Amino acid sequence: MTSMLPEQGEYLTTGWEEDLPATDSLVRQSVLAHVSWARALTTAARGHFAEGHGWCAGRGGGASALLNWALVTSPPRSWSSTMAALSAAYPDDVSAIVISPFPAPDLTAHGFELVGHPPLMFRPTSASGTAPATSVEVRQATTPTELQDAERVLVEGYPMPDMADLPPGDFYRSDVVDASTRVFVGYRDGQPVATSAAHSAAGVTVVENVAVLGSARGRGAGAALTWAATTTWPDQGAVLIASDDGQPVYERLGFLRVERWTCWLRIESPA
Q1: Would the pTM count as exceeding 0.90?
Q2: In sequence order, what are the beta bridge partners of 70?
Q3: I want to staple 172 with a disulfide (CB 3.0 to 4.6 A). Which of 23, 24, 147, 214 is the partner?
Q4: Strands 69-72 vs 96-100: parallel, antiparallel or unpaired
Q5: pLDDT tens across 163-174, in order?
């Protein structure tokens, strides 16, 4: 009987080697795509993006955690070292969202508080479905006015109050919407009420920045804007990080639950 054990000294692929193709696994694709999205988000905010072995950190230039995205990008050899590197990427007066695709120990001793375990969801190109019915007019935001409309809805509907004082067009600038990033805005009676963004990387579409004003909720606007972002590049699947409340909406659009990631908040240090 042939032994199932590898030969002595044989290298066993883990799935997280840097030279592996993005398509080695769906989770790897999702991680690399979200790294690219964090970089794009940082570019939008004209901030600073840093990377190290097993982590990346985008600093958007503000104190809001929603502008500061960090990810654990491979299973840490040492969680203490990884968390120390992520903390060092941000000033003491800045908080940050830290997403880990990997189960993590209690990180509170390192200055991180557990937010939850949001589901990673994936919609394959084979999924059936049609655009959700809605009275909202969905447009791809290409003009400065449309981009400012999308930006205003994002700030008010997400909400992102720390961006409220930014000049119009400071975040969704025309140079941010490039070949890999698209922004959508939904109008009702000529007024912007919903928005979403799509980012293509690692062979999948990241669906992000879905926001709906309170006055337009419950009318299918969120689903319609999510659909627009999801199908931006119809020849590739789409991924998103959902909330438990949002899962049923995404499932109706053809998304499947893959696994739960872990979300931590890096708390700003008191002055």
Answers
A1: yes
A2: 57, 98
A3: 147
A4: parallel
A5: 888 888 888 988
